TrEMBL record:
Keyword Metal-binding belongs to the record: yes
Stated name of the protein: Sulfite oxidase and related enzyme
Species for this entry: Methylophaga aminisulfidivorans MP
Record Gene3D superfamilies: 2.60.40.650, Oxidoreductase, molybdopterin-binding domain
One Gene Ontology term of the molecular function aspect: molybdopterin cofactor binding
Oxidoreductase molybdopterin-binding domain span: 104-266
Domain called Moybdenum cofactor oxidoreductase dimerisation: residue spans: 290-393
Cofactor(s) for this UniProt protein: Mo-molybdopterin
Keyword Nucleus in annotation: no
Coiled coil spans: none
Classification lineage: Bacteria, Pseudomonadati, Pseudomonadota, Gammaproteobacteria, Thiotrichales
Keywords for this protein: Metal-binding, Molybdenum, Oxidoreductase, Signal
Amino acid sequence: MSKQRLKSRRQFLQGTALSSVFLGFSLPVKAQSSLTELQQILPESMLKPGANFSNYGQPSIYEKDIIRWISANPNVPGNGVSWTPLEELQGTITPNGLHYERHHNGVPDINPSTHEIMIDGLVDTPLTFSIDALKRYPQTTKICFIECGGNSNAGWRSSPIQSAAGYVHGLVSNAEWTGVPLKLLLNECGVQPRAKWAIAEAADGAALNVSVPIEKLMNYAILALYQNGERLRPENGYPVRLLLPGWEGIVNVKWLRQLTLVEEPAMTRDETAQYTDLLPSGKARQFSFPMQAKSLITSPSVGMTLPDNPGIYQVTGLAWSGNGKISKVDVSADGGKTWVEAELQAPILDKAFTRFSLPWQWQGQYAVLQSRATDETGYQQPTREALITERGDNSFFHYNAIVSWEVNEDGQISHIYL
C-alpha cells in the first residue's frame, strides 16, 4: 500500500477528513484532496447515506434464498408443511420466520381479544381463560425443539432422496418458548382423581384434537405465548399453543382453545389413522410421544461440493433428544467403521438442539460422513438397518436413523444408504 493511501486511511481512522463531510463544513483545498483520495479507497456503501429506520427488522436482501421450502397439498393448499433450512443456519436457535410449519387446514386468523381457552371435563370447576388473563399469571421459559412425528420419513423409502438436508430433515426447529405453566391452571380448576387424559383441541379449520396424558400436562406443559422473545407467529400457534417439550409436534397443539379432562384417550383420527405405525408383529405402535435421540450433519451435506483445494474442513451439525440432554456425538468419515467424538458446543440443554463440530482433513479421498448421537439415558441413535429391523418397512413416523453423506473424489456430496 502506498504511503499516501496509508496516510488517507490514518486520517479516516482518526475521524478528521470524514467527519468534516458528515458535518457539512466547507473544506479547504488540502481537505478536498484528502476526500478525493478517500473516495478512491472506501467502499461505495460508506460514501452515501444508508437506509432509513424500520419498524420491524428484516433479513438482508442478499439472504433472500434462505427460506422455508413449502410442500403443500395442491388440492388443499392449507394442508402441508414448510421445512426449516437447517443446512443454512448456525448456532441452535431457529429464527421465528424459519421455524418449520405443519398445518392440517391452513393458518387461522384469531383475534386475541376474543380468544379463550376452556378447561372442562373431569374438573371441580370448569374455567375459561382469556389471553389477557393468561398474561397475568407467572410465566416460565424453556428452550426446546419441536419435531414433527413425520420428520425424516423419506428415510423409510427404498432409495435415498437427494434433497438438501433441511428439506428432508427440517421438520424440526429449536426456539425459546415463554408462557404459563399449565399446572397452575389445572390446579385452579381442580383435577379429579379419575382424570388420566386430556383432549386438546385447536381453533383451526381442521378442529385438530389429540389425547395427552395428564401426567405430562401437570409436570412439563406450558401454554406458550412468546417465541424467541416476541409474541407467537400465526403459523406457530398465535395467540397460544400447547408446549410439551420433547414430544412429537402433533401434541404441541397450536391455536389451543380447549382442554377436556377424561378417563381414557379419545382415539381421534390423528392418533389412530395417523401418527401410528404398523410393526412387523402386526400390532400398531401408538402414543409414541417422545422423539428419540437423533443427529444430522448439516455441513458438509448433500448438494454441497467441497472446493478443489483439499484441506481441513469443519464438520458441523445438530443433535437432539426428547428424553433429555445430548451426552455425546460421534462422527465417522468411513461409513461407521471408526468413530471420533465431536466437540459439543455450550450450552447443552435438556430436550434442545446441541450443535456439534469436528475438524476433518479431506485430501480428495472417497469418504462417507455420519454422525451418531447418544443422550443422557444412554440411548444411542440406531443405524438404518437396525431401525428397520425393529420397526419394519411399513412405518412412516419417528425415523431417527443415522444419516450417511457420501463424498466422492471430486468433492460432490450425495445421500446414500449403508
